[in-house]
Fold these 2 entries.
Entry 1:
Amino acid sequence: MTQAFSPDSWQYRALNSVNPGLDFLSDALIELTQAGHPVVAGSADLQYSNGLNRYAAAYPDRYIQFGISEQNMVSAAAGLATTGCMPFVATFASFLGLLCCEQIRMDIAYTRLPVRLIGHHTGISLGFYGTSHHATEDISTTRAIAGLTVVSPADGHQLASAIKASVDWPEPIYFRIGRGRDPDVYEKGHRFEFGKAIVHSKGSDLTIICCGMTVEPALNAARQLLEEGYSVGVIDMPTIKPLDRAAVLEAARSTLVMTAEEHNVMGGLGSAVAEVLADAGAATRLYRHGIYDEYSLIAPPTALYAHYRLDAAGIRQVALEQMKR
Amino acid sequence: MLHEPSAPTAGQIQMLREKARFIRLETIRLIEIAKVGHYSSVFSCAEIFASLYYDVMNLRQGQASWAGRDRFLMGKGHAAVGLFPILADRGFIPRELLDGYTRLGSPLGDHPDMTKVPGVDFSSGSIGHALSNGIGMALGGRMQKLAFNVFVMLGDGEMQEGQVWEAALFAAHNKLSRVVAIIDRNGYQLDGKVDDVMGVESLRDKWAAFGWEVHEVDGHNLHDLTWLLRRLKADAARSKPACVIAKTVKGKGVSFMETEPGWHLGYLAPSDARVAIEEIMSREI
């Protein structure tokens, strides 16, 4: 008997297969493979979450199913890289940044192998799946690993261009990406440069430095604040390591610098910016906005973004509070 | 098996025996420079080193990064002091490097570093990663159409690491038949007997249940060990990865180390080192 489902019913694979936001990763890898790069993609039982099922269908011989064995995947990717392959391996950011931290350090960064790690569903984007699936420490852990580049693209277009640019980047890379439902900030063909910030605007009252999913709401918040008479700049910092120090010091010309990240304020983008400002002896005040050293609550993602004031309204509010302090 | 390889000749065994002796003597010499090191961890696998590097593996003298070479990885990276003299002997690193073992700026430390030492196929030091690294290499070899074998030497205590079993599942599932895992089953780890610390038996049953072809051999019997490894390498029909449980003696070759597991890590003052050297020189293993 065939069940007649309500149109409101859905199941995971089918839903994700029609999420265009999940196509960016696979499409970029398909493009690289077509161009003759020795791409190998792998995932740990999450190909419908990161969209690599699309790559797997296009190149079944170049896709590796690792099963639920993330540590083995990371270490094996290192072995693959020694043979001239260009491995891109993906799993939830919470698993890569914490569960596989030592494999990343020992087998990929210490060995300087050109492995590309894709940590997806960063921050609190997994919503009600809960703290186990939230990645609010992965910037801290990966940033502290010598020789590892850390990139947090704002949308699918920036991800695609960063993936394509990575073929000329000699260091191992950790890409921390969203859940494929991020609104567009950039356009197709966006140019990505490792280690370069994107200065959207300059402001004398406040500069917001952000990365990943906070870029779009920060731009919206800045737009509103401008209308309210504040001079607000926004800098997208997609490469968290190596950090664009010059851009940070330029931002320090504002009265206030504020970072916004979907990550613990300890060890993340805010800390990276603080290090630059302190090293340079900049007198500018810095306010680090993000998750305040706590375990995130359970709720749908949009409710969490509102609760943690990481949506446009929240970022605007935090900015106002800090400018008036 | 298409071409059954021949058993090693008496002359070949004698050569390998001399190489194993060389490995033990060099280990003592290098540890004298460092003033601390893993003697007995090397002594249990000296015959495995000798058999692989002087008979079984496809290597080209002086060409550490020849793409077609067989790969060797060491899960028990702390036995690297026994590997470095071999790498010098095979012409991969200058012999003089050995004389500065562990000194400030030396590429040679207690664990092997592939970014510093030509001939080290993969770095190690954190127990439990090597089999995963090795299966990645074997998979890459298959994708890149490079017909090399991957030999991964694991400690028996290493079986306690969960990642080993992730890799074991993967290798069998993907029919990585060019992978040969060799377990140096010397029975000891830092805190005592493996069986007391965290028992790992039955290794044969465990590896077989994970889908591997399992062989057991006396890890000091150069004839049996070498012949087995030759056959595993030549066996093109095998679809399973192979696991060799090499029964060994921790500290083999030096009586007072064979009976005292504390020599896993230590230092022999020159007078005591002389006793060990004399026994290594005079004893036939």
Entry 2:
Amino acid sequence: MLEIKNLHATIAGKEILKGLNLTINEGEVHAIMGPNGAGKSTLSNVLTGHPAYTVTAGEVIFRGKNLLEMSPEERAREGVFLSFQYPVEIPGVSMVNFMRTAVNEKRQHEGKPALSATEFLKLMREKKSLVGMDNKLTKRSVNEGFSGGEKKRNEIFQMAMLEPCLSILDETDSGLDIDALRIVAEGVNALKTPHTASIVITHYQRLLDYIVPDFVHVLADGKIVRTGGKELALELEEKGYAFLNE
Amino acid sequence: MLNNSIQYTIPAGEKRELLLINEPSINYHIVQEEGSSLLVHVIALPNPKEQDYAQHTTITVEHNAANCRTEIYGLALLHGNQQHHLTTSVLHNVGEGYSSQLIKFVLDDASKASFKGELKILPDAQHVEAYQTNRNILLSRQADMVTEPQLEIYADDVKASHGATTGQLDESALFYMQQRCIGRESARKLLLCAFFDDVMRTLPDEQMQENLLDKINEYIG
């Protein structure tokens, strides 16, 4: 599904990714762990086309297409979804209006007709109950005044609405208490199909108790330096990243 | 410049609304008597093709008795070389009054606008509440906005505040929306309509709100 080859990327002239390679197949969950400043968030920003980052070398092929040539919205419509570490508050833009625009622009890209108001509201209801999203929240402006946990749940709700092939969860566990974490993880697991894949970026092993990865990668200094199964996360939790300096 | 001038007094206890949409340059001087209220909207939403659009609107309001209420809302969306200049002057001559002003402009291309807001609370005008807010978004480097708030407060027992900001569209919100499949153009529309939302909601007529919103969406395009 996703093939990242020798990816180099900079922000403000500083090189953050220094030759990253990663292949992800349908049905797989990949965890990316690593110390602060290793480039974890840069990877998610580069994959989604954040304008502040420049790719200086390498390629990214997503379902046979060159991802790096696409605008951020094209990547999203092709099925790349990022659950933001810090979801943005958009005062004055209602959740309903935001989601309806998002869903219909994706449908247009797929050559499908726009959903009618009734169909759209039905879809909202279905997905809200799937991820346990409070009715009150979808009546407000996007993320405005939401708690940390509510924002993360809203990310998973949007993921459910857009049904992406590849979901990147960027530190979805940060700022969540254990109950919120469990609910978010359950939502992610409920959305998993044999044809979707996820990249879970996290500092801590605890999220991986709930979203069980097939592979764990350690990202350090802009490269993947170690790859293992889910037991690698436990080892990192116990021993830290000291081995990086050995 | 020769402007039209209109003067009137709102009698005690009465309400007036003043709605100016793409109105030619004009001066209003309105005196309020006891317990009267005034709701003003100054809206500049010219067709982007109307290149020579340049309007100056001046609204002067005087509270000459207690318990008067004044709300002034301004909205402008300008393109090309269009100009819109709004001057307000709210004079609290007598205490126990309320005034609020909310002015929101969006300037694209090489358009120019100004907001000069005088707010005066005279020494005997105690227990007045007076607020003034001006927010502007520039969509182009060539656009030019001048804001001049002028507060003169001589009474000591009042609540008054003012704030003015001029900035750009929130890039982090644009990227967030793009990541949710929303094209940059639609994202800009959603953000600008949201920016105008609190002013739009103050229009008493819902049909008019919708018509103006349609125009805003068409002109942002």
